[in-house]
Amino acid sequence: MPVTKVDTIWMNGKLVKWEEAKIHVLSHVVHYGSSWFEGIRCYDTKRGSAIFRLDAHIRRLYDSVKIYRATIPYMKEQLEAAIKETIRANKLKACYIRPIVYRGYGDVGVNPLGCPVDVAIAVWEWGAYLGDEALEKGIETCVASWQRFAPNTAPTMAKAGGNYLNSQLIKLEALAGGYVEGIALDSFGNVSEGSGENIFLVRDETVFTPPISAALLPGVTRSSIMTLVRDLGYRLVEMNIPREMLFTVDEVFFTGTAAEITPIRSVDRISVGEGKPGPITRQLQKAFFDVVKDANDKYEWLSFV
Ligand code: PMP
User: Fold this and answer.
1) Which of 122, 168, 179, 253 has the fewest CB atoms nearer than 10 Å to its CB?
2) Residue 3 lies inside a defined structural domain of this protein
3) Do 280 and 150 share a structural domain?
């Protein structure tokens, strides 16, 4: 999806012009994938621009960085303020927010300790990640031949730049096969997640999702949907999901900041249920969009800009 340019990007404490937000080609991150980032959405609500679960995203960013023995040179509150400042500076009502922490320019070689930990925040306008029709009609997916990382290889709880090499293989394979997105299995052959989304399955009013031990990113949308599922009175089961369950359930959907709640209408050309978004997926979509649009004050998930 092409990015729509805005005026400024926040880099190491300062707003710089979009065109000048550059890094050196010998920065550690370019060679070794050493970055940690977030994808966050800001929605235009009746009470003004509001960021969805900013605290949860910032917490995951600090967790990701800690796993790699790095330290963000700012307090959480400073980064939260910087995000709001960047949105205001670019006069955006609704946007996608991309804070990124990376090992910058310094020493060369795998050892990152001689390189600074740099921080940038970019914001831009972004519509539906998997296409406008995706939210409405659902998408066609396949099970990828590429698996997610095995335990104790690349940590999947960290949202690290390097992990997205695996995501790219999954996505490219899906696109090459004429699908919109791929579903990856973990190294034990159980269902893990999409290239950039978590996954949920529904059968007989029970909602299933794989546990974080299934090599997935602990999604902020995933945790929000788990809460909504319980609050709507459905049974939520977090368990290892055998691949074939994708073919027998009534509904399947992806969750993610970019993908929001995207129904899946087929897996490997086998239709999910009747091949169109099911009633529980629809109900959860509505509940989710009510919360992010500030039409439900039960959840304190919005942080106003
Ligand atoms: N899994 C992966 C691999 C992702 O990149 C994302 C997007 N951040 C997700 C799951 C969904 O996470 P979230 O709901 O926090 O956006």
Assistant:
1) 168
2) no
3) yes
